[in-house]
Specification:
Elements lengths: L5 H21 L9 H13 L1 H10 L1 H10 L8 E2 L5 E2 L4 H5 L51 H16 L4 E5 L4 H15 L1 H7 L13 E6 L14 H9 L5 E5 L4 H4 L4 E7 L2 H10 L4 H4 L11
Antiparallel strand pairs: 1-2, 3-4, 4-6, 5-6
The structure holds zinc ion.
């Protein structure tokens, strides 16, 4: 296939960036936990703010160019189809990029290397981990829950970030199967399954149900769960240091066709110090690629 022209390439990048930001504004999020009723104002607001989102995507075109040049595998580029719907690489693309020394894949939901995505539900689907209350600052002032190993690592990471002048808050930790059932069913009842799958993780398919995942905010409260969070002190610190405590940013920029979710610089996942450091040093962006698993852009049906 011939290389796209400079102007065509820029237009495509802008289209993709606009689509990503629009999806973020509409709540295409692994972290969605609010009910359908609660989310309605946010959806309406996103429509009102769509112009701003497009303008922001223009401003961020430099970041997109950088990500293409530095980190995106050439076979992972989404491209707009004539219908305007992104096309995705074959499911084997991510597997082809897997390092030969990848750890064994686990389906044990209590294993830090378990992979939960749109093709890999929890087993059992209503799994509930052992849970503790981490000794960290929460945004709401209410207690959040994590599994013990993740809670311990989070306490160490939060303390180190504070010492470095980048204090963070815990926004949302463990989320039960029952909570996700209520949220997802609310969406299905209101708007049908197709819309529900865009707005909310299906029950049993959320990393938050493992106790290994949580969302953070900057202590200032700025840009919580918004794309601009990536520029906060907390986000910049996490991008540089989270691996030292066993965490990865699970849904990196530009890898939605692999992970199934658009960029979430606030969603951290514990996988252990060894694996997280290995990924960081090798520049492996996603857990799917690291473990040699197929991309999971959408539910299998
Ligand atoms: Zn999350």
């Amino acid at each position: 296939m011939a290389a796209p022209s400079r102007s065509g390439s820029r237009a495509r990048r802008r289209w993709v960036a606009s689509a990503a930001l629009a999806a973020l504004a509409l709540g295409l999020s692994a972290c969605s936990q609010t009910t359908a009723v609660e989310r309605t104002p946010a959806v309406e607001r996103s429509e009102a703010e769509s112009t701003t989102a497009v303008e922001r995507s223009e401003a961020e075109s430099t970041a997109v160019e950088r990500s293409e040049a530095e980190s995106k595998p050439p076979n992972a580029a989404p491209s707009p189809s004539p219908s305007g719907v992104p096309t995705y690489p074959s499911p084997t693309a991510a597997a082809a990029a897997a390092p030969s020394s990848a750890p064994a894949v686990s389906t044990d939901p209590a294993n830090p290397l378990v992979v939960v995505n749109k093709r890999r539900p929890l087993a059992p689907i209503d799994f509930a981990p052992e849970l503790v209350v981490p000794n960290v600052v929460t945004a709401s002032g209410q207690q959040e829950l994590l599994n013990p190993v993740t809670a311990h690592a989070a306490e160490q990471m939060f303390a180190a970030a504070t010492a470095d002048g980048a204090p963070m808050t815990l926004l949302s930790g463990y989320r039960s199967y029952a909570t996700q059932v209520a949220t997802y069913n609310g969406w299905v009842a209101r708007q049908g399954q197709e819309a529900a799958d865009v707005a909310s993780a299906r029950p049993g398919y959320s990393e938050h149900q493992t106790g290994f995942a949580f969302d953070i905010g900057d202590r200032s409260g700025a840009c919580s769960l918004q794309p601009c969070f990536k520029d906060t002190k907390a986000a910049l610190w996490v991008a540089a240091h989270a691996h030292e405590y066993g965490f990865i940013v699970r849904y990196p920029w530009w890898y939605h066709e692999t992970t199934g979710y658009y960029y979430e610089p606030w969603h951290l996942r514990y996988i252990g110090v060894e694996a997280a450091t290995h990924m960081h040093r090798r520049g492996v962006a996603t857990l799917e690629e690291y473990l040699g698993l197929p991309a999971a852009p959408a539910y299998g049906g």
